[in-house]
Amino acid sequence: MNDPQNNSPEKRDSVQPGAAHSCDVAIVGGGMAGASLALLLAHHCPALRVALLEQHPLRGPGAAIELPSFDTRATAIAAGSLQIFAELGLWPALREYAAPIRQVQVSDRGHTLGVSLDARREKAASFDGMLGAVIENAALGPVLHRALAATATRVIAPAEVAGVTMQADGTLLRWRGEGEERGEQTLHARLLVVADGVDSPLCRSLGIETREVHYQQRALVTTVGLQRDHAGVAFERFTDSGPMALLPLPKRDGMHRAALVWTCAEDAADQIAGLAEADFIHRLQRIFGWRAGRILRAGSVSGYPLKLSLAREQVRRGVVLVGNCAHFLHPVAGQGFNLTLRDCDGLARALATRAEQLARGQISPGELDLLQTYWRERQQDQLLTIGFSDRIPPLFAARNLFAQGARQAGMLGLTLAPPLRAGFVRQAAGLAL
Ligand SMILES: Cc1cc2nc3c(=O)[nH]c(=O)nc-3n(C[C@H](O)[C@H](O)[C@H](O)COP(=O)(O)OP(=O)(O)OC[C@H]3O[C@@H](n4cnc5c(N)ncnc54)[C@H](O)[C@@H]3O)c2cc1C
Question: How far is CA 410 from CA 41, 100, 115, 235, 420, in A?
């Protein structure tokens, strides 16, 4: 186990070479899912010996962390997730990088009717006067990993898990490190948490299949500079090619900024991403309109192919899946990480309810009964959130009269019927259950 006082990455990574080690919980993947779960376990189940293995090196505190999770994207973190981070004591550190979402404006291109959700009106679904907050992933990563370094979690990085063998009392992981830890190492875990992202080789090696729906769309992501202040408004705009989101970001170098997620048809994505900055802005402004004022700048564009990918099994004896390897969603409603954080919170709390038995060694953290209880409690939220993220894009992409009528009626319903709107907002905020 780590010395919690010694947070230097070199010391944290040190494991006796060649020796077989054991822990109660091994988390494979130090991205948003794995790092968040490790923090929640340290908070709710401090007696558990937790190891986190990440194949990429983690830099020292303060420096950028080059993991897939912590790239150039920004994440809309819902009020419910902010509450979870606040319970972990992370809100003061996150607030420094957060742009509050005070209002969400949803609109349909070519129609005047739209829905506006306001934190002042939706008090029950807000946190500290905001519906949520947007944080750049490159800022979120170091906050999570700095906090993790201050816990007793054993962070092993770089450590690529090359294979796992199920045993009667848990799982034997084989991993490869660098430097002194070059060559194959082993670690025995009573509970294996797979958090290695979408298209998980680990799930495949465990024989866990996924159900996939390819949307034939790509999300183009970039940061734009705005002429005027966004005033904490997040815009969601449905267009012929797919939904577009413009999320508030903190001002930088005197420039008002927003994070753009532009969903477009797969066959148009390369052409749009390859446009020169002025042409990109021109096209964007034409489709998005002038709700956020004039767009002055656009940064480099990254693309993410979109699909729905759901693991057919999320728990089995000694194994649990969290994050993208369990469910990878369309980013339209900004739900993927928020759902994952609620799953991780649920898992840590489920283990905490059995803390005494775990401490006395009467049960294992990989006990099937315990994991199934966790899964049953998470099922309803997952079904609602996954359905919400999966059904909106086709409804808003369809230009036929029925679909247009349905979404206009939906927007009208949300505008006119406060209980309906409240339900919608609470689900989106991760506070529905
Ligand atoms: C365009 C876009 C926008 C999004 N916006 C939002 C949003 O606004 N709000 C929201 O809630 N969600 C959003 N999401 C979803 C969010 O990004 C995901 O929920 C999040 O990335 C989940 O991360 P993860 O940790 O499961 O996977 P990953 O980020 O893929 O992390 C997996 C980690 O496992 C490591 N790993 C893999 N294999 C091994 C191995 N064998 N050994 C050791 N380590 C290994 C990898 O190096 C990596 O660090 C968005 C997604 C996209 C695509």
Answer: 40, 26, 9, 17, 10
